Each structure stands twice: as C-alpha cells, then as structure tokens.
Amino acid sequence: MSRRKYDLLPSFLLLARTSPKQKVLRIIMATLANLLRLAPEVNTPALLAAGGLTFVNGLEKGGKGVRGDDEELVADLEFVTSALKERAQTLSSVSHA
After folding, report:
1. CA distances from 40 to 13, 22, 45, 77 (A)
2. Measuring CA to CA, which residue among 70, 72, 90 is closest to residue 31?
C-alpha cells in the first residue's frame, strides 16, 4: 500500500478564512487541534509553514467573530495557538543559537 502525502493544511486554512459559517471554523479548528495532538512532530511544522500562527493570532484578536460562548471552539483555538507559539519559539531560539 502506497502512502501519499497530501498538503491539506493550507486548504483547511483557506476554507476557514473564507467561509462565512461559524460551523466550518469550528470543525476546522477541532481538526487542527486533533492533528496537533495526534502527530505534533509532523503537523506543527506544516501548520506553521502554511501560516497557521498568523491565522490563529487573528482569531484570538476577535477575527471572524469567534464567540466566547462556543467553549469547544475557544478551547481548540487556545490549544492550537499555544502549540504553534511554543514550536515557533523553539524554532526561533534554535536558529539564533
């Protein structure tokens, strides 16, 4: 069985940026959180390269109307943001060493 590599993360981010539906954003954020939990060593660098940190930073600052009453979305957003910031910090400190 061959294993193909699919670059889905940029497509997920584009869909999350352009969809007017809160449900779409919620599903994509849950998917991103699961990908980072299940295989962080592969998915974290790929999500950073796709512009994921810029995207989640925008959401944290109130972009796309993320409502605080959607606890699952807020929790996934916090997890993804934290994971990406931590990895970006690690990569930044390694490159300056």
Report:
1. 17, 25, 8, 16
2. 72
76 contact partners, CB below 8 Å, separation of at least 6:
26, 29, 30, 32, 33
Amino acid at 49: A
Question: What pLDDT, on the 0 to 100 scale, is given for residue 90?
Answer: 84
Q: Is pLDDT above 60 for 1?
A: no
**CA of 20: how far to CAs of 10, 14, 24, 26, 74, in Å?**
18, 12, 8, 12, 18
* Per-residue pLDDT tens digits for 80-94: 999 999 999 887 765
Global pTM value: 0.85
* CA distances to 19, 26, 33, 79 from 72, in Å: 19, 8, 11, 11
Q: Map out the domains of the chain as residue ranges.
A: 19-95
- Contact present, 35 and 43 (Cβ < 8 Å): yes
